[in-house]
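#struct-pred

JT: dropping the chains for the assembly here, can someone run the whole complex?
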Amino acid sequence: MVTKHRVVVTGLGIVSSAGIGHSQFWEGMTSGQSFVRRITRFDPSRMRVQIASEIDDALLQPHLSGAVPPVENRIYTYSEIAAHLAWQDSGITIEELGTCKAGVVVGTSVGPSVNAAVSYMHVHNTNGEQRKEIARENVWSHGFPAELGRRLNCKLRLGGFSAVVSTGCASGADAIGVGLEAIQWGHSNVMFIMGAEAPIEPLTINAFDAIGALSRRNNDPKRASRPFDRDRDGFVLGEGAGVIVLEELAFALRRKARIYGEIRSYVTTTDAHHMTAPRHDLNKSALAVKRVLTQAAVAPEQVDYVSAHATSTPLGDMIETKLAKRIFGQRAYEIPMSSTKSIIGHQSGGSGVFQAISNFLTLKNQYLIPTVNLESRSHDCDLDYVPGRGRPAKVEHILQHTFGFSGKNSMLVMSKLSA
Amino acid sequence: MLNHSENVTPAPDGNGEISSSLSRVAVTGLGVASARASNVEEFWQLLKQGRPSETLFRFDDDELLAKVPGFKPKFADDTAKFAVLATQQALICAGLLETGAESVTAGDEIGLALGTFSGPIKWGLEHSFMEAAKDFLNPQVSAASSVIAYYGSLIGNVTIPFRIAGPSVIFCNLDVAGTDAIGYAYEAVRHGKTRWMLAGGADAPVNPMIEGELLRAGVPAECIRGDNGRLVDGAALVVLENYESAVARGAHIYAELRGYQTTTALRTLPFSELLFSDECETDDVECVVVGSLAPYEVNNLKSLFRTRTRSLSVTQPDQVIGYALGAVGAMQAVASIMTLNCGYVLPSAQIRFPMNESEVVTQPGTFIPIRNVLQTTQSLSRKTSVLLFSR
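RK: done, full complex below.
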């Protein structure tokens, strides 16, 4: 017989367009405004999509020792700051980390691939012998997702279980799930979970645009990300990094850590249907929700809030609404459901961690974040999406939906810590 | 409304934690598709010969892929193509897919854990990166490239043709990605997360980016490039299954996977933890399948096995079948499992003790009774992952 350890969250660190650090982030999430704007980092005028939720350099500057990093290195800067903030927030010391098994899981989809593209550009635009030398001198490893995990491990000097997970937009949620399991299964006592993405560069924007996923509301950026609204036309890319510190409950109690809440369960299923589109019959996503609630020992009638994926795509939001109705029946109309993406855009592989951070702040503050820009309901999205402004609410149990291309359905249940 | 009465989780005990029993984990399927071997039999014969094949398999005609009914090559790069071929073999081998059939039965109970290092980077270099180099501020990227050029597309490419609908995850853990994927899958089956896990690695590292990285690390160009180079594209997958379930359905059990450990710091730690947790003495291990025979790896073996090191058979499969980067651990795993299943120790390096590097000598292959094989894979970032297979 083995014991399945309970897992709690004891530290949060975030670098987002709404703010850096969880206090500033929460202020932004509850402000009722969107942080989307016309891209300022480079000249987007020849691109079809010219808007994003950028992290302002002025926000970033106080956390830097030098200059603001170029586009290709931003993901590393965001990650480093978020990890440092989460570590500080958890209050865990190097000595305490030395007494336990501690590790890292990183979730990212695009990752630092623009770093590789820029390196490639240098090689491609150079000739002959010089080209060979540049090929040799370029640090290509900085273009792989694995580099994010390596750096986080080095920074925190952790020696335990480590993994870098890349499952499209579900990467962040899957990273939390894998980290949760590392503790539940006895591989670790403490896990640092990171979701990171810096996709605001022309290559990634044009790639998402090529498949028709992005909003082209260039003339009205603040109103572009509008999940569940009748006039939604795609998502808006966001960026940043979020880090969550997970701990085995007994370890956290022993060191008298402040506890934000508990992660009760994680389940993921795969549609096995289409490379980008979800299944209309909801068979696999509903299966994931059913399993995650069962494993959490939380009945559907106990769910107080659904943290939605809510990307603002016409198909995705409609399917997610249908899923809530399939699971909760008539009660779906009574359960509030909202998401971070109307406010700070979609961080792709990082978004699952951003959602989770927002959810633990919801548990702490007993307050629901709004869906901004929800101005006209569409006939297929008719639930309570907390439109316009946030509001206080009693929240004990949260169901988090995160979906990804390739048919990923990743679900988490997070709760206030009970005896 | 969802009926919550099904499969209710056992009630927590006094401190709120839940106790449950662990399942044993059997290996019931194997698949290999690489530029040097197109199936497990070819792979094993090459390893037994102890020298690489002279011809390389390429995807010029996609002949083998045409035999995967539901596969759409439009959205797949080389990493995905090799993964699909190895998956089909492993599923057929495990009896989960009939030859020529389009999908598995019980797809909800089959999960996927796949490791890769460079993933779709080769595709990116040949397509989207080139567009970025031409016009960084407005690169022209096709819809197909957009789908292919992210690591997560491996999931769709592998699960859609066979209707595999359980949990799925891609690990990008450098050279140890394949070993970690198998280790994760092992824990998933052991803890009852799913009944079957398809696990392994796939990679297409024969590309300028990986070559550049190896050149920078001081590896001579002739060892990297061309048909004689050590880098190789390919995939290897295994089917892990709840042991009781495998016995009940009469599946052929190739081996039992007994343990997995990983660390990023103390390289010898996972070995001792692995053996300790599985109540296995070092004397019980007859063969070690290594990812390399670098001095630190040899030192790990010396500190673990001490004087027994001299009688240990140490095999390094990638010397024969090529170094498949993120898939190398999965290929090691197939070699480990075949070693147990056939009772045949591959041509191996034997380490003398006390020793230095010059005292690693090659031994011919031999038939001997083997009970346990230890697999160790390491990456340049100090990550070490180990698996223990038993008969």
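JT: nice. Residues 78-93 of chain B form the longest helix (16 residues). The radius of gyration of chain B is 21 Å.
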